[in-house]
Amino acid sequence: MPQLIPSTTRLRTFEDHVDAVHAVVVFPDRRRMVTSSFDKALRLWDLRTGAMLKKMEGHRDWVHAVVVSQNGQMIVSSDSCGEVIAWHGESGESLIKAIKAHPKSWIQALDLSPDGTMLATGAHDGTAKIWSTSSWQMQGNPITCSGAVRSLRYSPSGDHVAIATFGDIEIYDSATRECIANFKGHTVENGSPLWTPDGTRLLSGGDYHDPTIREWDTSTWKQVGDPWTGHAHNINATAMNPAGTLIASASSDKQVHLWRLSDRRSIATFQHSAWLACVTFSMDGKRIFSGGGDNMISEWEVPKDANSKIQLAMNSTAHDACITGNLSSAQELLTREIESDANDYASYANRSFVMARKLDWDNALDDAIKSISIQRSLMGFISKGIALCGKGLVRDARTAFGLAFMFTNEDSTTIHLLLLIEAIALFNADQREEAMLLVKELAVNCPNADTVACRVVEVYLRTQSGINALNSAHYDEAASHFTAAVNSCTFASSWPIHAIYEDFVMLFGWDLKPLWVTAHQKRCQAFLSAGKLEEALESYRFMMNTIHRTVKATCLNWCTVFEQECGALYLANGDAALTTSDFDKATDLYSVAIDLNSASYTLFANHSKVMLGKMLWEDALFDAQKVIELNPESHVGYQLKHAALRGAQCYDKAIEAFNIMLSKLEDAPDAQFRKLRQQYVSPSDVEDAIRRAIWIELENAPLRLLNTHTGLLCDRAAQINAFKTSTEYQEILSFTTKHADLRMERITEVVAVYFRRVLLSHRWDDTELLFHDIQDKVVYEMNALGGLMKLKSFCKMARHAGYFWAWMDTCCIDKNNNAELQESINSMFAWYRHSALTIVYLGDVFPSSNAGALARSAWNKRGWTLQEFVAPKIVVFYRNDWSLYLDDGFPNHKDSPAIIEELEGATAIDARALVSFRPGMRGVREKLQWASTRITTLQEDIAYSLFGIFSIHLPVIYGEKKQNALGRLLQEIVARSGDITALDWVGQSSEFNSCLPADITSYTAPPCALPSLSEDEIQTMVSSLRNTVAAELAWKLYTLLDNISAPRFANCRLHLPCIAFRVTEVRRRLGSAQETNFTYGIKVDGLHDLLINTEETMIQFSRARPTWQTVLLVRPWNRYLLELPDFAGLSDFGDDTGSEDSYWSAPGSPIDELPRGSPVEEELVDVESHSRALRLIVRLAQPFSALLLAQQRGGEYKRIASDHDIIAQVKDMASVDNMMDVRTLEIL
After folding, report:
1. CATH 1.25.40.10 domain residues, the chain
2. Given the DSSP bridges, would you call strands 127-132 and 118-123 parallel, antiparallel or unpaired?
């Protein structure tokens, strides 16, 4: 195919700079141009005359970059000193003083966001910054890049910024500054990022190590195709024509290359005398401006057929005539060329195209055959195929197109276009289904195909089919074609497809400029003609929502006609709907025809409904009043008036209108209207529903709450009365008019929002106000001293956050009322749990405090504050000046990684538990460890503060001993859960029960961690036992343990299921007389010898010197060793209301279901049961945490406390007899 000849002749030059020109920008008004130079100045130029309009001075060093806003009203430039100046786009006068954007650094990168509100700068200091163009203040923090910034560019949407550095190409979210992609672009340096108009591709240029242009897919950031080669040195600038079809690149090799984006080919070069730094297109895309080391700007003409994918070798005059549709002139010009050169095969082919455009198929075919006879070519066979299709000789046409493929040089772009041309020719020959199928298959199956071209062809062909059907009054068929065309319009309405796909204009005379608009408008007309008004309106709205504003301005007259025609039909259909009382449909129809002037009662009524739907309350009220004036006896006007007043929040007047409406219905002469009264609800029913919702909401609320607006402490009755005088209450009454409105969801939602409350967690001090101090007083009017200052600030903080109610434990509980105190302590966890917000006030954390102050705060060591933090869902920490701790802006500090990390380190509580705590009996030992280091002022409170943690309710008995309070708590935990981990402690025994500790600090040490076996180790040991342990004996032990009862408490006595091992010898080891702890050596039947340290004095004995007292070493039984689920139904939220039997109904043994005395029972167990029993023996043979018990005179036992964990182990795993002493012991 003929190639474009490089253009070397300048059209003109712009000369006035005295040093290298580094930037050039053409204004959107097409009249002016601005340039910058190393001579420290900018210059404004008149593009029509070439005259220099103004020299703009103000920079102190080389001016590197210039950008112009899209409205042309602002110019921004940057220099080597790191300064930025903004200039007026018309006058060229500076708007601001120079900004030191990047002090002492070279700013080479500059770009304005598409809306002109933000400026991005990039410098050699390796940073990029975003500036507001209204305040000229930096927005957010600088972006730290991987290297010096050479260039940057906003994406067409403005959502992203592409930054080219010396090392990488980096893509940032322009709003968040988050780096969303970072990749190695070119070999060494990257430059000149350039987005395609649709934002799907990014182009970049390399330096002299890699002087190529590379194309990147912005969905994957992977390279597309091969690099564009042609330059020999640095690519310093790139530009795209307004149509988005051509790329110009300027290089240090003194050349500008013009590339076609669709096939990535260089189609022209422009030679300069010096290195180049800048390049841009004129606004019409017909000129290129470039400059650099020659100190001037050169203007060049873009080749006219630069967008053509198949070079037609047609002179420019004939080319322009074909494009404009002046076919006679084109024919005449081509005939002259043929007469001057009878062997000009290209002119014959071109004239064949022209004759085909004129539908002169015979002469078109003659010219095509003549062209081929002179020289076989791609153009010749294409022209022949088109002509044959025009004559209806489709079979011969296919042969001609097939021969054309021989001359495509296997170029995919040419092949792709050839197939589209064949499809169009077939379509014109009435082979429409085949043509459409070919286009679709081409879009799907051809690699690297120009799918937009396929879409353009499909849209055009579908539109032509639709026009034919519309002209034949086949409206449904037409609508189907136009819908298919619209669905294929993946290109924007403003996209210059006429210029991009010029080949279709040349060959077939297509007018592509209005294609997008034509497809949409014709679809609207087809639906309207078919009587499908909703589809027509929907299509029209879709068109208006997606059309570009510049295109919309060209079709305003059509829009006016369509709206009038459509509106008239909607009005007529609205009247028809009203005659059938289909008010909903009529409302929708009148919403289109609402501008028609009518004084009818029904139209005003329906117009009022429309305004209500749009929440235009005043307009709706106006229409409702008109309805009342036109028909004062009807209830409808008052019904609409009620709805409008309700929407405007004039609730008293709304209820008044509602009552009048009810009276109109009751007094209506028509029985049918009187019957309508039955659907409305009476006010008393509404009040009952609201009352139920209130009590449900307040069930988990403190008994007394502080009203943050009045400053009064309110009991339940006062809280409810406050609600009944509120706007929210009036709103519910006003909105609940029908029985269907009594749905509790709406009422519950309003009640819940009103009664949202903020709870305070804090460390008490000596100046705290109590209940009697604030009772019947307005907190805000009291003298702000000591604890009152804290209370006032807390209430104001809650009010400022939008909450009506607040609660503070110091003054909101009447501690002299025992019943109230009991309920408060047992409900406090639930109160915090259901708070809308819990504020933690750190009185000992100052504004200057750094991270770690929370961990050191006294608040973090108190017993009650554990539940006050883990229970709420939303918590915010404040310092003692009521500023946010660490200035942390998270709405919920449980979502703050910094704060949760600090608390996790300080409390040793896992972050997940801190954030999403679940009360109940799970993890008993772990929760006890959390509380073990905390302190309370009253000793009993260490136990009371844990009631909510374990979801336990117990009597509060201030004055009882600490051991008794803790004992009652632990007793309840063991009794309800069966969890024996509460027995895992070291220290002194409690007077409450010897198996329980005397102090919560006994749980400070982590629970005893014993080594576990892997599955392979278990299997190995099981195999070793198969021949040494009798199946009957193993299964007997398994059955004994499977059927043993759960641990339980009764009257301070623990009934503990266990495996008991008899102690046969106790001997005290010698130590110093001052020792308070004694060490004893202990021998136990079946176990290895042990050493035990204890404060208690033990009776020494041996087999030779026995004693009356029985001493046992016991293994508390844990059902998990059976490898069966133990607590499958236990809730993590503490709804533990069942009896212990419900938790410990032991799973039945396989033998239980066998008839006694059967042969099967004699065999006892099968292989699987035997394996399960052996696995149990293996686990029992491992080291275990044991309790040392001494029998008392009454037969009960007491635990002998040790100062460390007692770890025991059986001597012989195969000696099952030593493990058969399974019993439940009563322990005092």
Report:
1. 558-680
2. antiparallel
Residue 158 Cα distances to 71, 197, 411, 782, 1190, angstroms: 16, 12, 36, 55, 81
Distance CA 346, CA 426 (A): 23
The class that CATH gives domain 5-301 is mainly beta
- The H or E element that residue 1114 is part of is strand 1111-1116
Three-class secondary structure of residue 324 per DSSP: helix
CB 628 within 8 A of CB 704: no
Beta-strand runs (E) in 496-626: none
Residue 1219, token pair as written in the block = 């493990």
What letter would DSSP give residue 893? G
Residues 412/413/417/423 CA torsion (nearest 10 deg): 30
Listed in sequence order, the residues at least 6 apart from 12 whose beta carbon sits closer than 8 Å to its beta carbon are: 50, 298, 299
Nearest Cα residue to 592 out of 625, 562, 635:
562
**CA-to-CA dists, residue 1195 to 203, 477, 1108, 1114, angstroms:** 91, 99, 11, 16
Half-sphere exposure (CA, 13 Å, Cβ side) for 194? 26
Question: What is the reported pLDDT for 407?
Answer: 86
Give the integer Cα–Cα distance in Å for 1173 and 707: 65
Q: E-strand spans in 200-285? A: 201-206, 213-217, 222-223, 235-240, 246-251, 255-260, 265-271, 276-281
Task: Please report how the helices 716-724 and 683-698 are oriented relative to each other, as an axis angle in degrees rounded to 10.
Answer: 140
Q: Which residues lie below 8 Å from residue 1176, measured CB to CB, with a gap of 6+?
A: 1034, 1037, 1038, 1041, 1121, 1122, 1123
Distance CA 742, CA 680 (A): 10
User: Which residue bears the tokens 């009264």?
Assistant: 677
1188 DSSP β-pair partners: 1113
Q: What is the 3-state secondary structure (H, E, C) of 1154-1173?
A: CCCCCHHHHHCCCHHHHHHH
Contact 693, 747 (CB under 8 A): yes
Give the C-alpha separation, 618 to 631, whole Å. Answer: 20
Q: Which class does domain 558-680 fall in? A: mainly alpha
Residue linked to tokens 């007309």: 525
The pLDDT assigned to 588 comes to 75
Find out whether 254 and 273 touch, Cβ atoms under 8 Å. yes
User: Is residue 199 within 8 Å of residue 155, measured between CB atoms?
Assistant: yes
Instruction: Look at residue 570 in the predicted model and tell me its pLDDT.
Output: 78
Helix (H/G/I), strand (E/B), else coil: 290: strand
Between CA 1164 and CA 1158 the distance in angstroms is 10
* Nearest CA-CA partner of 479 in 467, 488, 492: 467
The arithmetic mean of pLDDT across residues 155-173, rounded, is 93
Residues near 998 by beta carbon (within 8 Å), at least 6 away in sequence: 963, 987, 988, 989, 990, 991
Task: Return residue ranges of the chain for CATH 2.130.10.10.
Answer: 5-301
Give the pLDDT confidence score for residue 1073 in this predicted structure.
57
Q: Which pLDDT score is estimated for 708?
A: 96
Taking only the tens place, the pLDDT of each residue in 924-948 is 999 999 999 999 999 999 999 999 9
Residues 6+ apart with CB under 8 A from 43: 16, 17, 34, 35, 36, 37, 52, 53, 54, 55, 56
Q: With helix as H, strand as E and coil as C, how does 634-657 read?
A: CCHHHHHHHHHHHHCCCHHHHHHH
Beta-strand pair 1078-1084/1053-1068: antiparallel
Specify the amino acid at residue 139.
Answer: Q
Contact between 732 and 643 under an 8 Å Cβ cutoff? The reply is no
Contact present, 478 and 526 (Cβ < 8 Å)? yes
Query: What is the total residue count of the chain?
Result: 1228
Chain-wide mean pLDDT for the chain? 87
The β-bridge relationship of strands 757-762 and 805-807 is parallel
Q: Which of 1162, 1179, 1210, 1178 is nearest to 1032 (CA)?
A: 1162
